[in-house]
Amino acid sequence: MIMRRLSVLLFAAILPLSGCVTAVASLQDKTLGESLDDAAASNEIKARLMAASPARFNEVDVEVANRVVLLSGRVPGAEDRREAEQIAWEVALVNTVANEIQVREKGGVRQNLNDEWITTRVRTRLLANDDVKSVNINIETYDGTVYLMGLARSQAELRVIAENAADVRGVREVVSYIQVRNSPYEPAQTASQQPGKAYNPYATSQSDELLGGPEY
């Protein structure tokens, strides 16, 4: 009886997750199978990081698109950064790991608010742009660096996404791991080599100007 009740509870817990993934997949340019694989990989990596050390890895973000993993955020030491990457590689549904984790102290409240504001402004700009299918794009910001992950339908859309992100005030750098649909995956390169990665010429190092500042 106990085992049967446990099975029912587990099934009930899985249903909302699978329903959510199905709904998102129907909007994105991904198959249901791709979405389920990416969600499973992301959840497993996050679970393994928390099992290893919640204190060291609680500021690590995990995004997965077409079996490419993007790790971003902060850890206290270089060994923690290497361990996080190793944990990601151990998951079966992973083909590539891009490690953008920064080795530094945890962000303060003001910096975290600045980063959240930047992420919101980038998302708003993409939603308002008719040339961008924003549901395909994940956005994370750490210390003024914007990380983009997901799928673009063309090189032209990729360029528009990166330019919109770079134009938000307070953005110091845009790092893109966006893949172009039906094109071979290429790791992010330098700003001068790849349209998907760009520096914001209007970036400022004054943190008190970031929060709620105007956009160019």
Describe this structure in words.
- It is globular, with a radius of gyration of 18 Å.
- Helix 1 crosses helix 2.
- The protein is built from 6 helices and 7 strands.
- It has 2 domains: about 30-105, 2-Layer Sandwich (Histidine-containing Protein, Chain: A), CATH 3.30.1340.30; about 110-210, no CATH class.
- The strands form 2 sheets. The protein has a 4-stranded mixed β-sheet with strand order 4-5-6-7.
- The model is unreliable at about 1-25 and about 190-215 (pLDDT under 50).
- The chain has helices at about 1-25, 30-50, 55, 80-90, 110-130, 155-165, and strands spanning about 60-65, 70-75, 95-105, 135-140, 145-150, 175-180, 200.
- With about 220 residues, it is α/β, with parallel strands linked by helices.
- The protein is about 45% helix and about 20% strand.
- The longest helix is centred in the N-terminal third of the chain and has 26 residues, at about 1-25.
Number of helices, where a helix is a run of at least 4 consecutive DSSP H or I residues: 6
Low-confidence stretches: 1-26, 189-216
Strand content: 15-25%
**How are the strands of the biggest sheet laid out side by side?**
4-5-6-7
Computed structural class: alpha/beta
Q: Kindly, what is the distance between the CA atoms of the first and last residues, rounded to a whole number of angstroms?
A: 63 Å
Shape descriptor: globular
Radius of gyration: 18 Å
Helical content, roughly?
40-55%
- The succession of helices and strands, N to C, reads HHHEEHEHEEHEE
How would you state the average pLDDT, rounded?
78
Oligomer: single chain
Number of strands: 7
- Sketch the major β-sheet: 4 strands, mixed
Count of spatially separate domains: 2
